[in-house]
Each structure stands twice: as C-alpha cells, then as structure tokens.
Amino acid sequence: MAWLLLDAGNTTVKAGLAINGRLAEGSLRLAPEAASLDELKPWLEQVEGAVLLPGATATAQTVGAWWASVFAGRRLRIVGDDLPLPAVGQYPGMGLDRVVAGLAAALDQPAVVVDAGTATTFGAWRAGPHFAGGLILPSQRAMAAGLVDLAPALPLVEAPAVPPPAAAFHTPGAIAAALAIGWPAAVAACQERLRHATGIDRVILTGGDAERLRGFSAERRPFLILEGLARLAEW
Known about the structure:
Blueprint: E1 2-8, E2 13-19, E3 22-23, E4 28-30, H1 34-37, E5 49-53, H2 57-70, E6 75-78, H3 96-105, E7 111-116, E8 119-126, E9 130-138, H4 140-150, H5 171-198, E10 203-206, E11 219-220, H6 224-233
Parallel strand pairs: 1-5, 5-6, 7-10, 10-11
Antiparallel strand pairs: 1-2, 2-3, 2-4, 7-8, 8-9
Helix pairs in contact: 3-6
C-alpha cells in the first residue's frame, strides 16, 4: 500500500512516498503554497491517500485546503488526530515531529536525533523506540530574531553558513560572526551533555539547517521525519 507523506513545517513542506512502510526515493522540499504543491499531482494516482504531519498550523491548513481542492473525498490522515502516535515515553505537549523522528531513528538501536530546523531539537531515544530526554535550542535565525526583538536598534542579520572573521569592525558583521560561530558550538555542547546524561553515542542529524553544521559528526538523514511517517502509516 502506498501513501503520500506530507511534513508541514514552518517554512517548507517535505513530501515523499511510503510504500509498504518504507520511504521511497525522490522526496521533495516544497514551498507551502498551492502552486508548489501541484508538483505532487503525478504521485497521487498511485497512493491510497495522504498522511499529514501538522508541524506548523498555518502550513498544515494550506496543505489541507490544497488536498481538499485537488482530491476531495480522498483520505487525509492527520497525525495526532485520526492517526494517533504510539506511546513511546513522550511527555504531554511534546512536538509531534520529534516523536515521529524517533520512530525512524531508534527502532533497532539507540540514537540521538538532532533536528536543525526553526528550533534545534535534541531527542535521545533508546531502542524500541523509547524517549530518554532531550533539549531544545533556538536556531541561528531564531537567535537573530530574538536579539532584534529585545534590542530593536540592532539590525536583523542572516547568519552565514561559514563564519566570517571574528574581529568585526561593524555591527552586522559582529552579529553574523557570533551567530555563525556560537550556534554550532552550542549545538556541539548540547549534544555532548546529552551524551553524558544518556550514554547514547549514535547521532542522527536532520533538518533544513543541517548543512550549517559541517564539522558535526553525525549520520545525516535529511528526510528522517518522512521515514518515521512511512512507518506510522502502516501502524
């Protein structure tokens, strides 16, 4: 049985095909708008329906409206609603995306999932899977936005992927350098502390900002959440 998988995030929609519980090749990142989602129409003839992870409410509403307009009457299963998550040790209010990632990451062996998205989340998972605790860190963009929110006189700066010289001689450069240097260092520090707390060494890195962690030692699986959705679709 095949399902269309849709991960509705804050800035993108990740889409893939699940065939017999496994993610097929060819997953996509799309803009959260109908014109972009129309790229998925060729896939829809081969699926039973769709599984939607409503990570961001506004994006999920856009995806749901698009689905209804394109395939009215076809089944749309929403994670956390008509497709409940299994009990794997998650706490009340824990992000659905973190749980779904754990389903894919730690089925047979423990893993720490680092998801570098709008928030940088760390989830430690024992085999099963079973949640063993975690951390949440702001992303570079969230750090920059938070700084401007609390200090409006400062400019909003986009952090470069490669750190510029640390000895900056203007305010935007000083902020950019600190973000590019500080966020990866904070990610590494959080991961090391979580490793000590749980004893889990295996690390899986996913999320849109994963490429900014060039020196971070981890198994890189950009569509990990879709992998988890593929497993969930068969449960």
